[in-house]
Amino acid sequence: MKGKFLTDRGQIRSHNEDSGGTYDNPHGQFLAIIADGMGGHKAGDVASQMATSIIQEKWQNINYFNTPEDTEKWLEETIQKMNKTIYEKAQLDKQCKGMGTTIVVSVCSNDFVTIAHIGDSRCYLFNEDGFAQITEDHSLVNELIRSGQISEQDAENHPRKNVLLKALGTEEYIAADIKSFSWNVGDKLLLCSDGLTNKLSDNELVEFLQLNHGIEEVGNKMIALANERGGEDNISLIIVDHIASEEVGGDASC
């Protein structure tokens, strides 16, 4: 596997509240995370950086995940630790009151992937069967779509499009959505913040992932297009490519 985290401040925001990273272990397993600090709240960048740092530290103490169940349990426990730490920081530090962050995390083994998320940062799977969104946004607009009150077309320009129903660090206890699935050599994951998905359609994301270029070049092209279309938000993404071990080279890999 190989993967690359890319982030950009965008065209409007004064600073970048997104954080993320990719980390491997000696057994060929790979972790990727994107955290999007809550815009309009104090210290969103603090919350997102805390989330990334905590999971990176916990990952360094992991030896090997044998099963999806082991991975899911570890992610559930780790996310609770992340939430508790961020929540307590927000309660104790006036400068951080009200802060929070979305997260989307993937733990990739050769045969399976486990995904956890809170908020509206997303994970997609691209393989021979097509392109599918694995996560479901914890947002007001998505709930209105689910309940049939608005259409997906209405959602595109809904005035409360950015309202989240769940975010890490905003409540004393919060549950992430966690799921596992199998994958194969040649499959790709795309993790991203809404700064990307608010600007590029699913069809456009597929076109980029089909390009026969390095994943960093493809990611930079996506970010450039999001910026061309306004770049009102920070833009972050990770592409994880499940390739045969002898093909690995160039990008951060395992």
Automatic annotation (TrEMBL):
Gene Ontology molecular-function annotations: protein serine/threonine phosphatase activity
Any matching Pfam family: PP2C_2
Superkingdom: Bacteria
Composition bias type Basic and acidic residues, residue spans: 1-18
InterPro entries associated with the record: PP2C, PPM-type-like_dom_sf, PPM-type_phosphatase-like_dom
CDD domains: PP2Cc
Protein's recorded name: Protein phosphatase
Source species: Virgibacillus alimentarius
